Amino acid sequence: MPLVNMKEILKNAEAGKYAVGAFGIQNLETVQAVIEAAVEEKSPAILIISEGAIKYAGLQTITNIVKTLAEAAPVPIVAHLDHGPSFKMATQCIVAGFKSVMVDASHFSYDENVAITRKVVEMAHAVGATVEGEIGKIGGVEENIVVAAADATMTEPDEAAQFVVDTGIDAVAVAIGNAHGLYHGEPKLDIERMGRIYKAVKAVAPEVALVLHGGSGTPDHMIRDAIAAGVSKINIGTELKLAFVNGVRDTLTKKPGVDDPRHLIGPAREAVKAVTKEKMRLFGSSGRI
Question: Residue 82 catalytic?
Fold first, then answer.
């Protein structure tokens, strides 16, 4: 089916008390892996595409790959810009065919964050696209975004509520102890804070969805608790990258004489697909279509 925005699938997720996975893709094989997993699991899926992936593959190229495979799939697929750095990039992605974008101005002051995010919302909503914003600072490394642990700040419930009112966003990413990349030790998510954020946001904007970034490496019980506290979109990136790289490494170890790229990358694609399916089952989105 044609690409969709996030609004309906996240509304359904919240009502059904499950979350939709947002999976980081890099190339043809990772797009294939995620969409095939979605079809087999009968699950919606959000494909998150970073600035780095766009630079690597080319904006129109990666958009065309996603659109072509999504249109052949009988499940809803979202092409979503992840951590968009500017109004310009958000606009370019929507013109290319994205139905959803994230603008990340969380490293600026509150007023600057609001101004930048609201400008993207006005543009995107005019053409039926959805927008995700971020309030609070999520630690860790996400490609070109680096936030030291000392600089990470938890999201305050009242500020999150004011932020969604001031910006008009459709989804809000919050910081509750989650981090991008791999965790050093077991993460400690403040689930009680997430519950308070959910209540505060829903009191002023019932249609806004809550987003958890840094899902890779988070223990299953914390994922379930976060969903129970109101999260309806969970980002997974690093685990898919590791699955792909380990798949290539495993093939080279077992078949050092491999001389066909398809025989090398094919197993890596299957490894990404397996992880994606596991996450869909964990999030509760399997069988929802």
Answer: yes
